[in-house]
């Protein structure tokens, strides 16, 4: 398409700058809504799939199953309480259970959660170190990538935890020594401070008289005065038969709650899906209105400038050339609207990601881009071409002689 046609199309569009601006804004709002819902939905689904990988059951204290899953897997809710260490040992002896990962939580560092775990917990998410090593004893810590970046900490740093999950809770006297930093994994571990289970027990035993974390029997065989506890236990089945039998066994024990991550996340996504569908419908409705407005704008230009079109045809402009001008107008409007909408969607995504990070919830990537957006761009271009068909047909079927006579 020649540059002359683009220049003429641009001038014709902006003969009515207010109306053209409104059409562009309507397109941008519809496009931004659809794109933003797509970006947020994909990231939440990927996060769920990544954090759920390899975990078939979450065992915790009696309470809401969804709360147990959110606290134990996604680390975005308060735990329901503690469970005895004996529960972990019994689960490990169950022939239907392949792996058990006990976790202890309840403390934080400037709002970022401290989680006591065994070193094998890193294998659950295939987490890898970017620097240092894994903890090998009490009061050694490994920082998630987001925590290290947000707090500006690295190897050798000395940090103190606070009781509770808030950023303003009272600080413990015991200090953690940072011995490792994890690579970004796009999972919950990015926003955790990981340490040995004995660290959690040691801090609470000495300073609060509470048993908040598990220790391995071989590490503290002589310390049996206080029953050992953990917050949750993540379970992986050995065979499909575990789905039917292991939860029953857990539920039969007093004070214990078994929660299926797959079931609870599906319920959560159904609830979230309603809002997502509403936003998607609203976005597509805006886009449909925007395409209709583009069609009306092009028809208006075609009607108001029909004598000019006739004169151009008398001067030798071919039908193909005129159709190209109409198409250029439609593509110009669509390009402005889609570009503004894309920038708006990604800008809002960046703002949401920043706000969540400030609240210690690194759930979104501010630079995330979806391949599906390319398909939406192609769909937008297709709609723009469709919107140009009727105005182009109206210009071509107009009688040149009568239009020129009416002009005079």
From TrEMBL:
<feature type="transmembrane region" description="Helical">
    <location>
        <begin position="278"/>
        <end position="301"/>
    </location>
</feature>
<dbReference type="GO" id="GO:0005886">
    <property type="term" value="C:plasma membrane"/>
</dbReference>
<keyword id="KW-1003">Cell membrane</keyword>
<feature type="transmembrane region" description="Helical">
    <location>
        <begin position="20"/>
        <end position="40"/>
    </location>
</feature>
<dbReference type="Pfam" id="PF12704">
    <property type="entry name" value="MacB_PCD"/>
</dbReference>
<protein>
    <submittedName>
        <fullName>ABC transporter permease</fullName>
    </submittedName>
</protein>
<keyword id="KW-0812">Transmembrane</keyword>
<dbReference type="InterPro" id="IPR003838">
    <property type="entry name" value="ABC3_permease_C"/>
</dbReference>
<feature type="transmembrane region" description="Helical">
    <location>
        <begin position="321"/>
        <end position="345"/>
    </location>
</feature>
<dbReference type="InterPro" id="IPR025857">
    <property type="entry name" value="MacB_PCD"/>
</dbReference>
<feature type="domain" description="MacB-like periplasmic core">
    <location>
        <begin position="20"/>
        <end position="203"/>
    </location>
</feature>
<feature type="domain" description="ABC3 transporter permease C-terminal">
    <location>
        <begin position="284"/>
        <end position="398"/>
    </location>
</feature>
<keyword id="KW-0472">Membrane</keyword>
<keyword id="KW-1133">Transmembrane helix</keyword>
<dbReference type="Pfam" id="PF02687">
    <property type="entry name" value="FtsX"/>
</dbReference>
<dbReference type="InterPro" id="IPR051125">
    <property type="entry name" value="ABC-4/HrtB_transporter"/>
</dbReference>
<feature type="transmembrane region" description="Helical">
    <location>
        <begin position="366"/>
        <end position="393"/>
    </location>
</feature>
């Amino acid at each position: 398409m020649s540059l002359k046609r683009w220049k003429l199309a641009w001038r014709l569009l902006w003969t009515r700058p207010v109306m053209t601006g409104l059409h562009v804004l309507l397109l941008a709002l519809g496009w931004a809504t659809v794109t933003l819902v797509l970006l947020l939905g994909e990231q939440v689904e990927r996060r769920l799939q990544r954090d759920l990988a390899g975990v078939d059951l979450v065992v915790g204290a009696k309470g809401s199953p969804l709360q147990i899953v959110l606290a134990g897997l996604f680390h975005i809710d308060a735990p329901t309480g503690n469970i005895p260490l004996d529960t972990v040992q019994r689960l490990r002896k169950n022939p239907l259970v392949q792996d058990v990962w006990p976790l202890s939580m309840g403390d934080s560092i400037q709002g970022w959660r401290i989680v006591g775990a065994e070193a094998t917990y890193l294998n659950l998410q295939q987490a890898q170190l970017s620097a240092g090593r894994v903890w090998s004893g009490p009061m050694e810590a490994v920082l998630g990538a987001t925590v290290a970046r947000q707090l500006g900490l690295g190897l050798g740093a000395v940090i103190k935890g606070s009781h509770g999950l808030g950023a303003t809770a009272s600080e413990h006297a015991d200090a953690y020594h940072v011995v490792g930093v994890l690579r970004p994994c796009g999972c919950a571990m990015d926003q955790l401070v990981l340490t040995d289970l004995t660290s959690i027990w040691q801090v609470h035993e000495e300073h609060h008289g509470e048993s908040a974390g598990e220790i391995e029997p071989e590490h503290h065989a002589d310390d049996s005065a206080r029953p050992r506890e953990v917050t949750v236990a993540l379970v992986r089945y050995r065979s499909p038969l575990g789905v039917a039998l292991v939860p029953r066994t857990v539920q039969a024990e007093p004070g214990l709650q078994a929660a299926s991550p797959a079931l609870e996340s599906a319920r959560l996504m159904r609830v979230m899906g309603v809002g997502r569908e509403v936003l998607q419908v609203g976005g597509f409705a805006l886009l449909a209105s925007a395409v209709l407005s583009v069609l009306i704008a092009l028809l208006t230009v075609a009607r108001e400038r029909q004598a000019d079109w006739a004169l151009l045809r008398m001067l030798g402009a071919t039908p193909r050339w005129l159709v190209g001008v109409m198409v250029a107008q439609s593509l110009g409007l669509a390009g402005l609207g889609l570009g503004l909408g894309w920038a708006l969607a990604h800008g809002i995504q960046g703002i949401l990601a920043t706000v969540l990070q400030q609240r210690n919830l690194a759930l979104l990537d501010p630079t995330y881009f979806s391949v599906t957006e390319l398909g939406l761009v192609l769909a937008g271009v297709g709609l723009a071409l469709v919107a140009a068909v009727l105005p182009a047909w109206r210009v071509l079927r107009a009688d040149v002689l009568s239009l020129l006579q009416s002009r005079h």
